[in-house]
Structures are given as structure tokens and as C-alpha cells.
Design a protein that fits this description.
By secondary structure, the chain is of the alpha+beta class. It has four domains: 23-73 and 80-90, no CATH class; 97-169, K homology (KH) domain (GMP Synthetase, Chain A, domain 3); 174-232, no CATH class; 242-296, SH3 type barrels, CATH 2.30.30. The chain contains nine helices and twelve strands. A five-stranded mixed beta barrel has the order 1-2-5-3-4. Strand 6 and strand 7 (136-142) form a beta hairpin. Helix 2 (92-119) packs antiparallel against helix 3. The longest helix has 28 residues, at 92-119.
Length: 326
Amino acid sequence: MSQTEEPQAAENTEQTPAPSIGRWYKVRFRAKDQIFTATANLQDLHSGDDVIVVTDHGPEPAMIVGLGPQPVLEGKLAGLKPAFHIQKRCNPEEKEKFVRLIEKEEEAFKSCVSLIKKHDLAMKLIKVERFFNGSKVIFYFTAENRVDFRALVKDLVQEFRTRVEMRQVGVRHETKMLGGIGSCGRELCCSSYIDNFAAVSIKMAKEQNLPLNPTKISGICNRLLCCLTYEFPMYKEIRRQMPRCGKTIIVDDKPLKVIKLNVLEESITVIDPEDRAVTMDLPRSTWEPLTQEMRQQPQQSKRPPRTDKKPKSPSDKTDKPRGKQK
């Protein structure tokens, strides 16, 4: 019988279809939350539809914001996966429960604020997140120092009759949760698509010739702008190819000194050491061949040591007394 069953098993494996890649959609769990990418086998979803999304802590309701990018998952992108998967559409009962969930979060926010004042805690409540299945309520807050909120948690558990988690976040995450409009006039990058905050340093502002005024290069969170990291690699690469400030280049058999770099235009400003009132802007087509020629030239050897001075003989050395002389 084993010989007759083997061909049938082989036929079943051949008939099993490969898993199809669903369409990608942009979803948002709350009205002002971050937008995530999710796949769905449903083909007729539209913007504004309420759906159930599978998360790590269970199903959660979300709203379709729009159609996401439809990548061709080949080669290196074969293992690319979205953050979530859309399970189904919300039925009328789930839609009503979703509306009630938002109201419960607002009520929990007000209750927690009043309890914080009651216990006189030095903390600021930012956001309340309640799971759709009611298994947990998360309270996000900011504080300058550690806060002993054990009495607060007891009161919250007694009021909501569920698991309570107090999660302290920094000022950058606070801005990410609250959202807002940046100095560029667009929605904040952190609240729209940034998942992990990259390290930002003042060196990035210097490299891009930005004014080192804190009000100019700081965001709503009073930290350095996250967008300073976007073009920093490009500036760094172009600066590496350009001659440094203070370097002398030869243009038409005349030495000129570099005093300024314009990375965006890829041009340099030079000055004549003999006539400092005369400055010139050289485009990339002019300074690039000159810098390449200078790099190809062999470096001058170090100055040879002087031979006119005879080395001292051992007899010329005078023995210095060791220790203090009395």
C-alpha cells in the first residue's frame, strides 16, 4: 500500500498553489496615528473603510487611508513583508465597538489626569491606548525623573478592572504621538512615517552649511531636526571630492586660494592672494580636473636631514648628577 500512496502524495504537492501576494494598503489605527502598511487578499477596499487588522496582541480595528505601493517582490525584495495583515472588513457591531473604544480612551485619559493630580505626581500624560479585546490599557507619559506610580496603578486597575501599563517616553516620542506641522509646512516626519529615531549631531548641520541657530535647526520637540540626516550622506560624499577651504589650486598658471564651498551648486569660491578684492566662482567642470591632476601628482618627499651639523660624540656628553646636590 505504501507504493500506491506515494504517487498520490506527489500529485497533491504538485496541485498545491503557491501563496498569492495580496494588495498593499495604508492603514491607520487612530485618527492622528502613524500610517502603516498592511496586505489584504480583499481586492475592493477603498479609503475610509473600517477593517480588522491582525497584530501581535490580537485583532485591532483600523481605517484604510489609501492604496499602498505594489512592489515587485523579486531578488533582494523577495523577503519584504508589511507590518500587518488585514483579516476582514468590520461588521456593524465591530464598527460600533470601535467608536465606543475611542470614547473609552478619552474617558480613561480624563480619569488618569485627575488621579495624577490627586497623587501629586510630577508627570505629564500624553496618550491612552486601549486594546480592542479589553485585555490591557497603556498610559503613555513623560517625566523629567523617575516617578513612583504604584499607588496610581492600583487606582487605575480598580477603576478599569483590567491590566494597566504605564510607559514613559521621551520628548521625541511625545511629539511623534501628538503630531503636528513642521517648519516646512508639512506633517511631522516622526508622526507620519519614521519608525526608529536616528542619531542627529550638530556636525550634520555644519556639513550642510546651515546656520547654527537652535531655533533654525530644532524641531517642535526642541531637539535637532530629524531631516538633517536625509541629505547628510550626499553632502559628505560631494565634500570629499571638492578641494578643502584654504587649499591652493592652479588656474591658468595662477595660484588661487579656496575660501568657500557651495555643495548644492557643486561650485567653489576662490580668491587671488595678491589681490584679495577679486573672487571667482568655479563650477565643477573647472575645479574637478584640477583636483584630479593634483591628486595624481607624486607627493613631495620630506626634507632631507641636515648634514652640516656633526653628531655629538659620546665623549662630548656630560654626566649630569642625579638627585639633589646638597
